C-alpha cells in the first residue's frame, strides 16, 4: 500500500481587538489584524487590517485590504485595497491599487510593475521562546 503525502494547510493568523503587540512579526500565511501593533510586519500572504486596528510601523506583504489605521510604510507585491474607513499616513509602494470613497490617505505613492517579487524577502524560521514568569522579584547585586 502507498501513503498519500499530506499537503500543508495554509495558515490564517488573527490578532484580535484589544490585543497589543509591540515588536516585529513574520507570518508565513494570511494575517488579520483587529488589535494594535507597534512594529514591523512581514506577511507572506494577504494582510487584512480591520476597522479597529491601529498599526505603527512597516508592512511588507503580497496583498493588503486596509480598513483601519496605519502610520508608517506599506509595500505590497500585488494588490492593495483601501476601504472607506481606512486611514493611512506614510510611504506606499504597490503594483495595483484600489481606493474606496471615504478613505483618508496622506502618503507618497510609488506604483510599479510587479518587479518587487524579484527582491521579495525570503522567510526565515522564527524561534519562539517562553520565559517563565517569576512570582517574586529578584534582587541583583
List the helices and strands and how they pair.
Elements (H helix, E strand, L loop, with lengths): L11 E4 L4 E3 L2 E3 L2 E4 L2 E3 L2 E9 L4 E13 L2 E8 L2 E4 L4 E8 L1 E4 L4 E8 L30
Parallel strand pairs: 1-4, 2-5, 3-6, 4-6, 5-7, 6-7, 7-8, 7-9, 8-10, 9-11, 10-12
Write a compact overview of the structure shown:
With 141 residues, this protein is mainly beta. It is 0% helix and 50% strand.
Report on this structure.
The chain is an all-beta fold. The chain has one domain (12-114). Helix content is 0%, strand content 50%. It is built from no helices and twelve strands. Strands 1, 2, 3, 4, 5, 6, 7, 8, 9, 10, 11 and 12 form a twelve-stranded parallel β-sheet that branches. Residues 121-131 have low confidence and may be disordered.
Find the count of extended strands (DSSP E, 2+ residues): 12
What is the helix content?
Answer: under 10%
Radius of gyration: 18 Å
Low-pLDDT regions: 121-131
DSSP helical segment count:
0
User: How far apart lie the N and C ends?
Assistant: 66 Å
Question: Would you tell me the structural class of the helices and strands?
Answer: mainly beta
Q: N-to-C SSE series? A: EEEEEEEEEEEE
